[in-house]
Write a structure and sequence with these properties.
heterodimer; A: 555 residues; alpha+beta; nine-stranded mixed beta sheet; two-stranded antiparallel sheet; 18 helices; B: 207 residues; mainly alpha; Fumarate Reductase Cytochrome B subunit; two-stranded antiparallel ribbon; 8 helices; 65% helix
Chain lengths: 555, 207
């Protein structure tokens, strides 16, 4: 029917075109309008008809149905076999991965020159990757990284499914050096036939579980973000924008935008456009530098200069119902029960003691701490000297109030107690996971674990020295910038959350904050003068009043 | 004998009372921003404060134009003639009901003491408030410029606050003097409302 409409419209148009040009009268114009109307209606009808026998277009709909690919029919007996099949078509895929931080776990910091990345940094959760490879690499986009000699050049060792599984059934063994579980291996053909773009769930299978469990590490990344309500994350909520991680952390040749080591704090607000350098994942990439209604004084937009968007728009973290870890005391690790067995204690469903880990504290719906930050993070690495008398910052945030590139950012601060080498005054690597008794989680011998850890770290080039033989414990803290769980605008901070005494900016120096800061001397002098004036006026008035009454009484 | 003299034209009264309302609003919201009271949320107080400030700037622009074009600015020229008697009057004579040593006329509405007080307000307090206030309003524009190298935002805020306290001092004195020291006591207040004042014509020539 739609087709008939269009033909009719075209015929009319042709008839109209054959009329002599001088007859370009209002009548002709009216005819033209009528024709256009008919054509539009017809086109709409056509579209509606077509829609009935076609499935609605899906975003990211692919032209390839992987289930029809002969090379993916299986059966597969291991992860690398699947990868070999993938690489038959995606010839450059493994090479691109080999060039990405997801594979190398290395990051050469362009500003500080520090060699960072998970392979090199130390944290106050489990600590270090060195000597614990087979456990840690359960979150590596590869197979078989179980010691320092892993072949980073092997293409078949790349794990495509870790990110591209869409079934949700691909599971890497927690202790299998990145290899999938047995149940997953049995299902590899089906999983391989259903690959697709990464999702919140596939990225989250590692990033939501950092630190050894759901929500443990970050505070703004946990399983509540797989299907978040709008109040939890305005960007990722299915009934809102339904962003996946890669919507902002745009991947180009398998390398993503966004780094925890060099945070984009000064993005100039350019929207990602093909052919241009991408500024993502900064908020400003999409929202620009003046996202607020200007109002009378453009007050909110003036905040953009010195305050990160996250500061006001992430009012609290870990607010999706999953607690995050706040304290990890390794000095308590290793206590065993009466039978000499490791044990766990729970409070409110949270593990507060674990022989393998020590004493733990948790929190939910937490107020961030705020610091000046210009995007550069410096790490205290294993070989670096520490002062055990202080709380050692495992990472240091560059920037202060006088640094024009620095803004006030929200952080989760992870605190803990961890071992250090008393002689060398350096942090130590703990060998936690392994088959021998030197592994702490098997032998529960602290000294043996540190000795093996430092031995391995030295061999891997992570530490210049071995264990001196004597260790003690030091307080440490680590800063985790908060960028996710952005709340809807009406839940962002209120002015008075910061512009008040003992507000959120309490203790943040280097900035004059109306409502928080006062001028005691001006107040004192001003108050005195005002009080004196009031008193003077009162006495003067009283004097007049009394004198007038006396005068009246006399007459 | 007294004569009913028109002292305050419609514009003067409009200007005076609008200014008064704006100033009280600015003080109220300003002290809410500073945190002296919490009768208004910070954000609302700031928005209202800025709105009132712009209105007052507009009013002042009109008033300055009016003063210049009408020559009324001469009303504020300071003089020492008759200053001492005025001081003595307020310090002593007023208590025993002595007549005021000054007769108001439309050409000279302010006694010498008034002239000094109003001139101080116009030349010291108000400009201090405006300059510091505008600097605070546009702090983002100059903080990273040359000016920002030697001027700290908190100093500007301190100056704004000090000027606000000075304004309060002025207001206390002004309200007391203007609202209670006439004959009868509320005569001046009435005059600023109606525009007319009963003026003693003891020296014979009004105006």
């Amino acid at each position: 029917m739609g087709l008939i409409g269009i033909l009719l419209g075209l015929t009319l148009l042709i008839v109209l075109a054959y009329r002599s040009p001088e007859q370009n009268t209002p009548a002709a114009a009216a005819t033209l309008v009528a024709v256009l109307f008919a054509a539009t209606t017809a086109a709409q009808a056509l579209a509606a008809e077509g829609g009935a026998d076609r499935s609605p277009p899906r975003s990211g709909a692919s032209t390839a149905d992987h289930s029809k690919f002969p090379s993916l029919q299986g059966p597969f007996s291991s992860g690398p076999e699947v990868t070999a099949a993938c690489l038959r078509c995606h010839t450059e895929g493994a090479k691109q991965i080999h060039d990405s931080i997801h594979w190398t776990w290395e990051y050469a910091h362009p500003r500080t020159g520090q060699q960072l990345g998970k392979r090199h940094v130390i944290n106050n959760y489990c600590g270090s990757v060195a000597t614990n490879y087979a456990r840690c690499s359960s979150c590596h986009v590869g197979f078989g990284w179980d010691d320092a000699d892993f072949d980073f050049g092997d293409e078949n060792s790349v794990d495509c499914l870790a990110c591209h599984d869409t079934t949700g059934d691909y599971t890497k063994s927690p202790t299998g050096a990145g290899h999938p579980t047995e149940a997953t291996v049995a299902d590899l053909a089906r999983i391989a036939q259903h690959v697709g773009k990464s999702t919140r769930a596939s990225c989250g299978s590692c990033h939501f579980y950092g630190g050894g469990g759901d929500g443990v590490k970050h505070g703004d990344l946990d399983s509540s973000l797989i299907q978040p309500p709008k109040t939890l994350d305005v960007h990722m909520a299915a009934d809102s924008l339904d962003f996946s991680c890669s919507t902002c952390h745009e991947f180009i040749a398998h390398r993503q935008q966004g780094s925890r080591y060099l945070v984009k704090t000064d993005a100039q607000g350019r929207i990602a456009i093909p052919g241009r350098d991408s500024e993502r994942p900064a908020c400003e990439s999409c929202h620009g530098r003046a996202p607020h209604a200007s109002g009378i004084g453009d007050t909110l937009n003036q905040h953009v200069e010195r305050i990160a968007c996250q500061t006001c728009h992430i009012p609290s973290f870990s607010r999706g119902g999953v607690p995050t870890m706040l304290w990890w005391d390794w000095s308590e690790a290793g206590h065993l029960d009466a039978d000499g067995k490791p044990f766990k204690l729970e409070e409110n469903g949270r593990v507060v003691y674990n022989s393998a880990k020590g004493a733990l504290r948790w929190g939910e719906d937490l107020i961030p701490e705020y610091r000046w930050f210009n995007g550069t993070v410096r790490y205290t690495l294993v070989g670096d000297a520490i002062d055990p008398e202080t709380v050692v910052a495992l990472n240091h945030l560059d920037g202060g109030p006088d640094d024009p590139a620095a803004r006030i950012w929200p952080f989760k601060v992870m605190q803990g107690v961890q071992p250090y080498d008393v002689e060398h005054k350096t942090l130590v690597v703990k060998h936690l996971f392994g088959d021998t008794d030197a592994a702490f989680w098997k032998g529960f011998d602290r000294d043996a674990a540190i000795r093996a850890g430092m031995e391995g770290a030295m061999q891997a080039g992570e530490s210049p020295v071995a264990y001196s033989g004597s260790h003690d414990f030091v307080r440490t803290e680590m800063f985790w910038s908060l960028n996710h769980m952005v709340a809807p605008a009406n839940q962002s901070l209120d002015c008075a959350d910061c512009h008040s005494p003992e507000g959120r900016m309490d203790g943040l120096t280097g900035v004059y904050l109306p409502g928080r800061d006062s001028h005691p001397q001006v107040d004192r002098i001003g108050g005195l003068v005002i009080a004196a004036t009031l008193l003077g006026v009162l006495l003067h008035g009283l004097g007049r009043f009394l004198m007038a009454r006396r005068a009246r009484a006399r007459t | 004998m007294t004569t009913r003299v028109k002292l305050y034209t419609g514009f003067i009264r409009f200007w005076h009372w609008t200014q008064a309302a704006l100033i009280f609003g600015l003080l109220f919201t300003g002290f809410a921003i500073y945190g002296i009271h919490h009768l208004m949320p910070f954000g609302t107080a700031l928005e209202v404060h800025l709105a009132l400030a712009w209105l007052l700037i507009g009013l002042w622009a009109f008033a300055i134009f009016w003063h210049v074009t009408t020559g009324q600015w001469r009303q504020y020229l300071p003089t020492t003639r008759g200053l001492l008697p005025m001081v003595l009057y307020y310090a002593y004579g007023i208590f025993s009901g002595e007549p005021k040593p000054f007769t108001v006329t439309p050409a000279a509405r302010h006694n010498p003491l008034q002239r000094l007080a109003y001139l101080g307000f116009k030349l010291l307090i108000a400009p201090a408030l405006w300059v510091s206030g505008l600097l605070l309003m546009f702090v983002g524009a100059w903080k990273t410029s040359l000016l920002g190298d030697w001027l700290q935002p908190d100093w500007v805020a301190a100056a704004h606050l000090a000027a606000a306290y000075a304004l309060v001092v002025f207001l206390i004195g002004h309200v007391y003097m203007a609202a209670t020291t006439g004959t009868p006591w509320n005569a001046y207040l009435k005059a600023m409302l109606t525009g007319y004042q009963e003026v003693k014509d003891s020296n014979g020539k009004p105006g």
